[in-house]
Amino acid sequence: MMRIEETDITKLKVDAIVNAANAELGGGTGVNGAIQRAAGPALLKACLALGGCATGDAKATPGFKLPAKYVFHAVGPIWSGGRNREPELLASCYNRVMDLAAEYGVTSLAVPAISCGVYGYPVDLAARIAIDTLRARQPQSAVEEIIVALIDPEALSAYRAVLD
Question: Based on C-alpha coordinates, what's the Rg of the chain?
Fold first, then answer.
């Protein structure tokens, strides 16, 4: 099952949440900043020990003070008009998240709108890639529940349009 919820991803009691991370896996703004604050300083320390993450990839840490057991830190592409493989890299983020879900035995997962904040990815294009990629991977996985956790009204509308 996949659903869209207007909710704070840091409050969800799921096996793993996805962080829209930067390549350094350092602190940040938006979803990344909210997750870092809610998880506590141990999360940043664990992230920095991972040595960064390539765009289109994802790495895992414990959830620390979050209700989620794990945080999957996915580095989405910065939008530059679609000329630098952005759709391929964004799909790769969601594929890597599903790979990590299999590796860590995750059955419930919450994802944000990766790359749609400060990275400027057009939300309607990102929604199609996210939903299509997750839909394609979910049937072959143990992930029973995917929550697309959003707070931005434009993102909610775009993701709901694609899911419906």
Answer: 14
In the chain, domain spans: 2-163
Contact 125, 91 (CB under 8 A): no
Amino acid at 49: A
What angle do helix axes 30-39 and 41-49 make, rounded to 10 degrees?
110
Residue 139 and residue 137: Cα distance in Å, rounded?
Answer: 6
Q: What SS3 class is residue 148?
A: strand
Q: What is the pLDDT of residues 48-96, one digit of tens each?
A: 999 999 999 999 999 999 999 999 999 999 999 999 999 999 999 999 9
pTM of the predicted protein model: 0.97
Q: CB of 149 within 8 A of CB of 5?
A: yes
Tokens of 13: 């009691």
CA-based nearest residue to 144, from 118, 106, 117: 106
3-state secondary structure 36-54: HHHHCHHHHHHHHHCCCCC
What does DSSP assign to residue 101?
H
Backbone angles phi, psi at 69, to 5 degrees: -70, -35
Write the CATH number of the domain with boundaries 2-163.
3.40.220.10
